[in-house]
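Q: What structure does this chain adopt?
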Amino acid sequence: MKDVWVEKYRPKILEEVVGQNEITDRLKAYAETKTTPHLLFAGPAGTGKTTCAIALARGLFGENWKDNFQEMNASDERGIQVVRTKIKDYARIAPMGEARFKIIFLDEADALTPEAQAALRRTMEKYTHTCRFILSCNYSSKIIEPIQSRCAVFRFRPLKAEDIKSYLNRILKAEGKEITDDGLEALVYVAEGDLRRATNSLQVAATMGDKIDSNMIYKTAALARPEDVKNLLTTALGGNFLEARAQLDDLLIMYGLSGEDVVRQIHRAIVDLPIPDHKKVQLVDKVGEVEFRIVEGGNERIQLEALLSQFILAGEDMEH
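A:
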């Protein structure tokens, strides 16, 4: 089930890619001239890096693009031996048909070990006449400087809400599904700029009925409703610890959230609280501390209740 709609509605050409106009304009110039340097795509997940690589290959090579396009995932094969054998062997083979070069698309390239990246650097340099590399990563800082200097760097941004909505509405229309306005807003909230996450959440919710609302979205995405989290924090700021603790129990049981999930949603909700900015700063600092303790193995329940106590203390300070 997962990623079925992602693949079905993946843009076939660069003009169809949403939310990355500056990047696609530059890539279209490469497709028109039928040449490209080595490329480095960096940015968050679900923002169109793989899609742009495939669309560029289609623009460069036409209908037979698969003959000269090889996709590899560096998180599966991250050692130096893979670079010395599999990647090098493919890079040295001449392109098929009338193409001037082939493309190796190396996804999650930041998972490559430093030794493998050093070997890749030499391969990129030696076989440029037969092969171009497109490296995709979430964190460009994990790519060694010699590789970055050999590539044209493209930085992808999280998608805006209107871009996500327009793409999802196209899917809904094609699939004959309906969605409420609050359901569409819920998908934007769940996505956090990640179009793949939005599409997968929509697909799962669509299996529950033809008309999709926000309740279906939040339940299938395993996230609490933003208003429920805000009510929890407002109750804590009002000084009612037992009531806030009961609301926390409801969130954990109803949505099946982990401690980290709750902390992340609390972090997002703090911005909208009707409290002074200096109090928001203090509370965000406490949220970061609790998140670190949970990641390091602290008891989730104790840490979450400790965080609620910080909100109660902040509320008492504002009363005095």
